[in-house]
Amino acid sequence: MVVPLRFLFLLSLTLFSTLPTHLHASFSHQSHIELPSQTHQSSQKQTHLHFFYHDLRTANNPSIVQIVDTPKNVHSGYGSTFIMDDPMTEGPELSSKPVGRAQGIFGMASFMLINFAFKQGDYAGSSLSMLGRNPIEEQNREMPIVGGTGVFRFATGYAIANTVDHLSTFEHYVVEYNITVRHH
Ligand SMILES: *[C@@H]1O[C@H](CO)[C@@H](O)[C@H](O)[C@H]1NC(C)=O
């Protein structure tokens, strides 16, 4: 018993004595890396986005399509997976101003991955990527915004999704999104 303990003690001494050298070495090798500064922080913007998207399961031109079916021996819907390319609008009506497309994939159990591609206004040509857990029976579903392009480079934030129940049918499902995002 005595020998391993002494060994451990010696090992920890060795670790402590080499640690500062390693830190010093890695910093001096990577001295070109910019550390966060006041300038970087003040150039960050916070933007709030509010829009709706429409899951259309109409016979002609559906915007969501099931690509993986639930296996025969599974009864809960677990495993079924969909791909989507939904119209995004400013208001809850499909006829309101189009703002872009919500393109992604989602499936059971509750996972969702969407790229919001903005096509109108200040954000035209930019996109936000969202990846999270979307239990559709709940209200105020929160999902992380994990990145973006264009004006949304370096984006981080969160989305709050709510189904607009009074407008939704099986063939036309309306979801409201509120997104708060910080970006450069
Ligand atoms: C979403 O944003 C709209 C418009 O800014 C606001 O009226 C609504 O309360 C927000 N909803 C949530 C759940 O944050």
From TrEMBL:
UniProt function note: Dirigent proteins impart stereoselectivity on the phenoxy radical-coupling reaction, yielding optically active lignans from two molecules of coniferyl alcohol in the biosynthesis of lignans, flavonolignans, and alkaloids and thus plays a central role in plant secondary metabolism.
Listed A to Z, the keywords are: Apoplast, Secreted, Signal
Protein name, as recorded: Dirigent protein
What species is this protein from?
Phaseolus coccineus (Scarlet runner bean)
The record, for PANTHER family, names: NUCLEOPORIN-RELATED
What Pfam families has UniProt attached to this entry?
Answer: Dirigent (PF03018)
Can you state the subunit structure given in the record?
A: Homodimer.
Recorded GO cellular component terms are: apoplast
Q: Where in the cell is it found?
A: Secreted, Extracellular space, Apoplast
What does the similarity note say? Belongs to the plant dirigent protein family.
InterPro entries found in the cross-reference section = Allene_oxi_cyc_Dirigent, Dirigent
GO biological process per UniProt: phenylpropanoid biosynthetic process
Cleavable signal peptide:
1-25
